[in-house]
Write a structure and sequence with these properties.
The chain is about 5% helix and about 45% strand. By secondary structure, it is mainly beta. The protein has one domain: Neuraminidase, CATH 2.120.10. The protein has a 5-stranded antiparallel sheet, with no helix packed on it. Strands 11, 12, 13, 14 and 15 form a 5-stranded antiparallel sheet that branches. It is globular. Keywords: Signal.
Length: about 300
């Protein structure tokens, strides 16, 4: 993801990510500036975040494709995966049982699978042609990893077969989630516990939709307006939506059948600076500051994860 950008910024990004090759470096680890911030040491940018086992988390350097591993209790992080040149790290999610990390590759049209023990690349997928798609976010279910595309009305599935990533497939969408009239369309994605329903955020429409992973049919989650919707976090019927231009995370209470919802709370922090994605741990949200307000690529001196009460 970057995820919730203006049309002008999105155009700049889509052109830039394919040719931007940045070096890596920086210290191996860093202590946070305070108890509410986890610095990603040496990061040139930031966007995605995923839960690991216990207090472990993973966060990506958007334009370098690197991955940091950190501890939410200790409030520390260090470089874990020094990605090959040309990779990009947008949304990410883990399969803790199989110890796999799935990372969306943005305008490269790619997706990457890493071993969370060694950091080695397990698989690389060319889900769509470079520049014709923006592989934005990912959620893992019992069937595999589902990726959104912000430019095309489709999802991608990397199945898990006998514990190993299998051959990827494309699911065409129908219904309101298939709208690609905006510069940036489908964005964040989460799944119910059973994996039978996916929930996606549409940045251009500011809406949430459910998707049937068997058929691709989608439906509006009525009663919820979330302009510039970005990353999503789901816990039962509680759904958190990151809205980065507004420096907000909103909590939505969904109906039991997921056909409607209601915004219950707006969460913000003076430390938010274009937050992009989030995870939940021990009564807190860990929110990545993408700092798109400094430009695309961003030009901040430091990138971090901000902890706020959920």
């Amino acid at each position: 993801m970057p995820r919730s950008l203006s049309p002008a910024r999105t155009t700049v990004l889509l052109g830039a990510v394919l040719g931007l090759l940045l070096g890596t470096g920086g210290p191996a680890a860093a202590a946070p500036a305070d108890d509410d911030v986890i610095v990603l040491p040496g990061a040139s940018s930031a966007e995605g975040i995923a839960r690991g086992d216990g207090a472990t988390f993973y966060a990506g350097d958007l334009f370098r494709g690197d991955v940091f591993r950190g501890d939410l209790r200790e409030r520390t992080a260090e470089l874990f995966i020094d990605a090959p040149d040309g990779r990009i790290a947008v949304g990410m999610d883990t399969d803790s049982e199989r110890r796999l990390l799935f990372v969306a590759g943005g305008a490269t049209g790619q997706a990457y699978v890493y071993d969370t023990r060694s950091g080695e690349t397990v698989a690389t997928y060319q889900l769509s042609a470079p520049g014709q798609s923006f592989v934005n976010d990912v959620t893992v279910t019992c069937d595999g990893a589902w990726f959104t595309d912000s430019l095309q009305a489709q999802l991608y599935l990397v199945p898990l077969e006998d514990g190993e990533p299998g051959q990827a497939s494309t699911l065409a969408l129908s219904g309101p989630a298939a709208d690609t009239s905006g510069e940036f369309n489908l964005n964040g994605i989460v799944a119910t516990g059973s994996g039978r329903t996916l929930v996606v955020a549409h940045s251009g429409n500011g809406q949430l939709y459910t998707v049937d992973p068997e058929t691709g049919a989608s439906a509006l989650v009525d009663g919820v307006s979330v302009p510039n919707a970005d990353g999503l976090v789901l816990d039962d019927r509680r759904l958190w939506v990151v809205r980065n231009p507004e420096n907000l995370v909103v909590e939505v209470e969904l109906s039991r059948d997921l056909t409607s919802g209601e915004v219950r709370e707006e969460i913000t922090s003076q430390r938010f600076q274009s937050p992009a994605t989030a995870i939940r741990y021990d009564g807190e949200l860990a929110v990545v500051n993408a700092k798109f307000d400094t430009g695309v690529p961003p030009t901040a001196d430091e990138y971090e994860v901000v902890l706020v009460d959920d």
